[in-house]
Design goal:
It is built from twelve helices and seven strands. By secondary structure, it is an alpha/beta fold. It has a seven-stranded mixed sheet with strand order 3-2-1-4-5-7-6, with helices on both faces. It is globular, with a radius of gyration of 19 Å.
Length: 299
Amino acid sequence: MKAPFPYFGGKTRVASIVWDALGQPKHYIEPFCGSCAVLLLRPNWTPDMTETVNDADGHIANVWRSLQFNPDEVAKWCDWPVNHADLIARKKELNLNTERLLENLCNDARWYDPLLAGYYIWAVSCWIGHGLFCLNRNQIPHIATAGTGVHAKGNRPHIYEWFAELSKRLRGVRVVCGDWKRVCGGNWQTNTGICGIFFDPPYSDVADRCKNIYAVDSESVAHDVQKWCLERGANKKYRIVLAGYYEEHKRMLKYDWTVIKWKAQGGYANTAQQAETRGKTNRHREALFFSPHCFWERK
């Protein structure tokens, strides 16, 4: 199943590799879920599986909660033409409501805002990455391709059906909003058996990337995640996959972790006119690191 919007650093292309390494754990956790691309591409999924996702961005948590409760209303606000003036206006409304959104989401487990969820999906499908949450930047919609997310020509006629299917898929998923340690604190993750975790934290200060790409960004959290992974990687009840640039996490190979390098598409950098962009260069640095008890090392 496809994610409803593109996401900077999304891992759709390697989701099958992640699941090959994790197998079918009793509990799946995605602490930096973003567009939930890996979750949505889980093979042989059944409704009784235990799955937990988390993201520090309240807009993302609101998208998933709104799709669970009222997919048709979310679709209503996504089913709208690409328009530069609308992108500026909707971007302003998203920014003005960020704090209110997070506060309401945390105060009431049944609260959601389908209009803002629709605006977010619509806007991110117009423009991904640095600039969406910068009020002083009025970038034009991305018009160099046939569209992405809900604006892709193959998706536009089927938004309502698509979102209804997403609602069914998300029925049993627990959506947490906040710091990644909310789902990784303590040692409860393996209470039901083997726990599979896919970490995709923001690239660290080692990555030489643009800052403030994400609404909630950090250049240090990847180091904290790496430490957490090394502390639990030897435990046979954990299967952990950590995504990032090879240079960020190569020290993990000293602790019986394994790695595969892969090439990302480079995002919208592929459409740039200049011969080289940072996105084009960095896409060759991507890697997936596997803990000792993942299935990958046995292949």
